[in-house]
Structure to design on (600 residues):
């Protein structure tokens, strides 16, 4: 590449400065190629990768699957509210976390000033002010001048996005009309929860979630409602981690970073928690009556004999939910390979892979801080994933042998931008460039075309063959390759369940095992579950068994159709489980009621 040839990053920055409204992603891609032609097989892939990982720093915000907007346009005239903590008011400091994600996350400088033109000084933790654990604005004089009291608000208006300039004003707590913004607050909270629930990532940067919602909201420049951070911490369905990441509430109680947090979750105790748990218990009992009624109707219709299967019921609270030690990190192996404490029972000499896994576990435990090791002893599988993810950089330095070396062939990227990913086609490309009407496929992991690791037993291998045939069948019907792969992949949950607990293939599935999988196994044991995804799993299963019947592999697919009709019930179980606080004193009671009759 010649020195005069512009980089993709520079072109995207230039285009962000030229556009003044939302624009179709395809148009941006084509404009980049006008400035920098490419002979690659898929010229859009590299540009999409830059937008995916560096979009915000390059001036672009993704609004939807096909639409982008310049970040400066999304932030223009935007207004929001800060409610400093009592300790912030006492210290005369405003931590930068209060301004996130509108400023402070991606390294750009921000100027904070009042209507008199006074600029607030930003103090870094390593400045002469000892005791600061995070960047903060010094606002002591401003607070005194306005007789600011704990509970009062700071109203923030973005005066300029490039450079970032924010104007602040004071509003007493008594003036804030909370009922007037209740609908706005509800809309914002629901939108945040929906976006996080659809993601497969354990931790999501808050700017990727919150900014698109504000950018598209009708109230973005109107009177600001409750700070989004407070909505999250008060609601309890999600957790705000280190003030900048969002994760499912199921990871509650994890302290992943050493820095102090500004927005800490509300304590789940006292009368409010008791009232909330009582209301949730009543909702669960009503749902259970509905589930039993549906099962009884299907039994009366001759679809099944009315007897539930419970092979996975040994993994309830305190066992499968919390196996102790690292038993929950070995879910891909047979359950009888572990003792009651969750540790492998097979001798090192019996299986080299187990020996290697055991050795890697020991080295990782030795490298991790003591507090992380202690949390891992009592972590669920998804919690263990998040705990380890928070220490990856440290592990890479202390124990690099845990990470396999990758050998990549870069020959195909010699004409691409030197900072781009070394692949012509990516999962991002497949997810975002498909014109199929099944938007749900973007929620599924596309990293492994062939699905999960193939177990050694023949049941799973046979199920994999059936799934591959189903994928080809969908392609023959005219479905896009992305849709066919996604629907096939949705079957792996049930295939793994049948193989692991019953030694069966998908062709041997039935009403009882599918009910157990959807209403007991899936909500508890699968990472990053979502109501939307379980509905789509039900749809994929219905279509798959229709395919098996048409191919004369099975003679009756009524059970799959019956469970498909119960897909909204399965989604409600997932949604309710997400609302059960892990640290609630009523957790076991709520758990047992939600998963009856499997917990009886």
């Amino acid at each position: 590449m010649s020195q005069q040839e512009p980089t993709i990053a520079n072109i995207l920055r230039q285009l962000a400065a030229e556009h003044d409204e939302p624009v179709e992603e395809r148009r941006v891609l084509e404009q980049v190629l006008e400035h920098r032609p490419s002979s690659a097989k898929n010229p859009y892939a590299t540009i999409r990768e830059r937008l995916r990982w560096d979009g915000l720093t390059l001036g672009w915000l993704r609004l939807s699957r096909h639409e982008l907007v310049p970040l400066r346009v999304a932030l223009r005239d935007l207004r929001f509210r800060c409610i400093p903590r009592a300790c912030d008011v006492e210290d005369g400091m405003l931590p930068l976390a209060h301004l996130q994600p509108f400023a402070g996350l991606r390294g750009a400088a921000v100027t904070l000033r009042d209507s008199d033109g006074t600029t607030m000084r930003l103090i870094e933790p390593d400045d002469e002010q000892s005791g600061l654990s995070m960047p903060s604005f010094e606002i002591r004089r401003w607070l005194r001048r306005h007789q600011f009291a704990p509970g009062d608000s700071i109203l923030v208006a973005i005066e300029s996005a490039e450079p970032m300039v924010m104007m602040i004003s004071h509003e007493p707590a008594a003036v804030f009309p909370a009922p007037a913004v209740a609908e706005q607050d509800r809309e914002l909270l629901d939108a945040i929860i929906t976006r996080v629930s659809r993601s497969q990532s354990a931790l999501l940067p808050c700017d990727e979630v919150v900014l698109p919602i504000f950018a598209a909201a009708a109230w973005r420049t109107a009177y600001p409602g409750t700070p989004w951070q407070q909505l999250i911490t008060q609601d309890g369905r999600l957790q705000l981690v280190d003030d900048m990441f969002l994760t499912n509430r199921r990871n509650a109680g994890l302290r992943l970073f050493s820095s102090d947090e500004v927005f800490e979750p509300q304590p789940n105790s006292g009368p409010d928690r008791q009232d909330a748990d009582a209301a949730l218990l009543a909702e669960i009992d009503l749902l259970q009556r509905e589930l039993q009624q549906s099962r009884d109707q299907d039994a009366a219709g001759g679809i099944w004999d009315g007897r539930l299967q419970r092979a996975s019921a040994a993994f309830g609270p305190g066992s499968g939910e919390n196996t102790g030690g690292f038993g929950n990190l070995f879910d891909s192996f047979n359950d009888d390979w572990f003792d009651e404490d969750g540790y492998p029972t097979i001798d090192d000499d019996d299986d080299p892979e187990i020996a290697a896994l055991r050795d890697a576990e020991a080295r990782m435990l030795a490298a991790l801080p003591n507090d992380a090791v202690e949390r891992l002893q009592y972590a669920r599988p998804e919690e263990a994933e998040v705990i380890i993810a928070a220490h990856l950089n440290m592990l890479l330095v202390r124990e690099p042998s845990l990470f396999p070396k990758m050998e990549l062939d870069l020959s195909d990227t010699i004409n691409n931008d030197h900072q781009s990913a070394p692949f012509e086609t990516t999962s991002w490309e497949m997810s975002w460039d498909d014109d199929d009407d099944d938007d749900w496929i973007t929620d599924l992991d596309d990293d492994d075309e062939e699905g999960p690791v193939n177990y050694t037993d023949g049941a799973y291998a046979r199920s994999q063959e059936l799934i591959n045939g189903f994928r080809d069948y969908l392609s023959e019907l005219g479905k896009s390759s992305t849709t066919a792969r996604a629907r096939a992949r949705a079957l792996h949950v049930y295939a793994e369940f049948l193989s692991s607990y019953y030694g069966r293939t998908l062709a041997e599935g039935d009403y009882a095992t599918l009910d157990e999988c959807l209403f007991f196994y899936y909500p508890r044991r699968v990472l990053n579950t979502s109501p939307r995804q379980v509905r789509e799993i039900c749809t994929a299963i219905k279509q798959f068994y229709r395919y098996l019947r048409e191919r004369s592999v099975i003679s009756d697919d009524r059970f799959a159709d019956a469970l498909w009709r119960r897909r909204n019930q399965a989604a409600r179980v997932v949604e309710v489980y997400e609302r059960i606080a892990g640290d609630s004193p009523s957790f076991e009671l709520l758990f047992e009621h939600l998963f009856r009759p499997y917990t009886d």
Q: What stands out?
A: The longest strand covers residues 153-161. Residues 251-259, 315-350, 406-456 have pLDDT under 50 and may be disordered. The radius of gyration is 26 Å.
